[in-house]
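Example complex used in Figure S2.
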Amino acid sequence: MSGIDQSKIRNFCIVAHIDHGKSTLADRIIEKTGLLTSREMQAQVLDNMELERERGITIKAQTVRIIYKAQDGEEYIFNLIDTPGHVDFNYEVSRSLAACDGAILVVDAAQGIEAQTLANVYLALDHNLDVFPVINKIDLPSADPQRVKDEIEDIIGIEAQDAPLISAKNGIGIEEVLEAVVQKIPAPSGNPDNPLKALIFDSLYDSYKGVIIFCRIKEGRVRKGTQIMMMATGAKAEVVEVGYFGPGQFIPCEELSAGMVGYITASIKNVKDTTVGDTVTDVKNPCAEPLPGYKKVNSMVYCGMYPADGAKYPDLRDALEKLQLNDASLHYEPETSVALGFGFRCGFLGLLHLEIIQERLEREYNLDLVTTAPSVIYKVHKNNGEIIELTNPSNLPDPTEIDYMEEPVVSAEIMVTTEFIGSIMELCQERRGRYLGMEYMEETRALLKYELPLNEIIYDFFDALKSRSRGYASFDYDLKGYEESRLVKLDILINHEEVDALSFIVHADSAYERGRKMCEKLKEEIPRHLFEIPIQAAVGGKIIARETVKAMRKDVLAKCYGGDITRKKKLLEKQKEGKKRMRQIGSVEIPQKAFMSVLKLDDK
Amino acid sequence: MLSVYIHIPFCIRKCLYCDFLSFPAEESTIEAYVEPLLEEIETESPKYAAYRVDTVFFGGGTPSVLKAGHIEHILSKLRNCYKFTEDPEITIEVNPGTADRQKFEKYKNAGVNRISIGTQSVHDKELKVLGRIHNASEFFETYRMVREAGFDNVNVDLMSALPGQKAEEYGATLRTVMDLKPEHISAYSLIIEEGTPFFDMYGTDCSGTEQSLCLPTEEEERLMYEETGKVLSKEGYYRYEISNYSLKGKECRHNIAYWKRYNYVGFGLGAASMVENVRWRNTAELQEYLNAFRELKPNGKALKNIKEEIQHLNLNEQMEEFMFLGLRLTEGVSRAEFLKMFCIDMEEVYGTVLKELSEKGLIECSERIKLTQYGRDVSNYVMSHFLF
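Predicted assembly (992 residues):
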């Protein structure tokens, strides 16, 4: 493999707004270059997690190497790095971009530029990538390629008039895209004889090989036997194998050298040793300094995860352990709740990440989970000068010990058609947004800029945004920093007992409203018992809202007609089954889903 | 012993709350139904050679839409093919407006000795709301004819918690019916079942309905239910089951067979059976049922099996049923019978449940386990505890 001509390598990625056809284009490229026959093609080869395909999103970065015979008669090596499209995975995206030399920007011919288009393209430009646009879905009746081209030039400021017009779904214009990759994306640079400097952009755990590091060799070379070191974590290991990415398989090779994208295995047992963004170098001949841009990824959103069946606690622990092997951004530590028993406080990059992990635990590990309301990290400044990073509302110190509190704030960009500007601004206002400005993209669309507290957007902001704009608004955000805020802990008491798993932190001004809604919601969720159950919301011991679940005085009596016992039994079974999914708090049985009800308080 | 249930799935018009297997049908369909029914009774009979029939119950639908001659046919077929006990209870359900004096006399001659009149209410306003085909005076007329025909064992079906019903109105219904002195009164509360017109009208909320037609609140419903017990017990009616009241010795034996898990076999469309701890039900597809006996196999069996949902009850299921069915009866269940039937002490199986429920005041435990009054009010809650 040594002696590969760098000028024949193209390392690139595809960036797009969600649903604009990124993964479909990737599939077509793979198919066109003959790597797989269409019979072997399963729709969206790169999204290989069941969940990814179902949701139509890319969660993990995926990489594939393909050979393309260009019109100039030469064979080119394409390394296509498919990146996650969601804002939760921004850092992963940025590291994947850093492994590329150029990017294809896919824009939907009907929808035009969306919030994530902008976010991703700016990210790519920040990494000095050469970006060229393609207009996808040109066969849609509503396609308006010329308008979209103009939009790209006006808004992003990149040349778009000769952008390939394609339909990834129907295989139209793919050849043109491949040629453009050869023409418009620069070949990598870097000297194979310099000390090794490779960027980790992803890693994967394999039970036989250990951690598989996905990397882009920026300088130098690496081969079997090279003693390597991860510069940020300091972990050292001896390379067992290097290779490149076939579709769905790893193909070993002799050596990876500057400009190449491939993998390294070195019997590393822990993915934490190989964090994304870190630089790999040669222990014997180290490079002077690591590649720029490495940062430790921090969780933005925390929640408690508990097995519905307490006996499944060890299973949950094992499952989290296994998931973490492949997802270094997942954090968890054991915690105990009076209401829910033993479980874990888990940290995620964002709400989507949370949902994905939750769904994978339920699906791949067959666990029934109770998840508490997600919380952001609050900074609690105590009177004694101590600062606590609070991830679990239950751990909030006594208010008398608190000097002040800070909460994370994001800067958000919302792209919306002009007719919905009013309702979206209203939404942002309700969520304590600070209006920063608005830019008209074209006559019918505007980009709204707001600063929003993160805790106002982690619940259901995205849903609310979509429903108030009939699905047209798109949204992107960036963590800006921490700001002082008047925050209080809202406690819920059921039958006069405080239920720790239902407590959450809320802005003082919305405490009353949220408390009231929460009580109403819980009243619906908690079945009637033989006795009356008061549900109360309290702030600092003061009751601010109350509802009552009335005692059950009589239950219905079906006439058992003609000896049809089966039906009667089904009724009783339903009642009994319902009981199993309950949590016992004192003498009250609370359904599992009540713990999630805090999530859905926006009823507009 | 064996109880026989015969299902007649026809009615003049479906009531708005009804979710039983019943529908209006052409005269010719009704005629055509009797034939396979007679076939089924005959072809099944060899299996029951060792049993003696103690009760027969014609239920529906409205069995009285059949001609009296059909009932005669069916009963004589039964007598020809099955052995009977000496004094069998033979009941037919009738709806006011579907039978006249002559019909009742024919029933009597055919051997029917118990009449169950479904009236549900004696207020015209309520009958209209329910979508019944008759008015109150037709009920009184029917009741009179039944007595004149010489029946000395009569049940009246009543329903409480009707839309717009007040406790006083229900009380008045009870007293009016009681004054007629039927031997037996069945008093159920209205249940809004999915798939019925009532479900669309009252099922989710009643904000769309007039105030005067709203369903009673749960508390009102409970008051009516309590009222039933109070009013009836004064006049010597004994509540032998959650919703059934009778004069001494006039309990419905057929009904009790269900709660005591005696063997019963159901004939006709959709009829349910339980024989020696096997439960099943007949097909609910009319065409399938009508065709099933067109041709018989050489061994005399039906060409097509119409038995569905066949379920062999395991020991746990038998114990569950023993408890939750038996508890419907005022006398409750007996520890000794449990031991005899399952060869295991009830305490060993249900000790914790019994303790919990009796601590909550829902059941009384001695040799017999019985629901308390409170336990009857929330009987589903209590009974669900006995499921495994």
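The mean pLDDT of chain B is 91. The domain at 329-384 of chain B is CATH 1.10.10 (Arc Repressor Mutant, subunit A).
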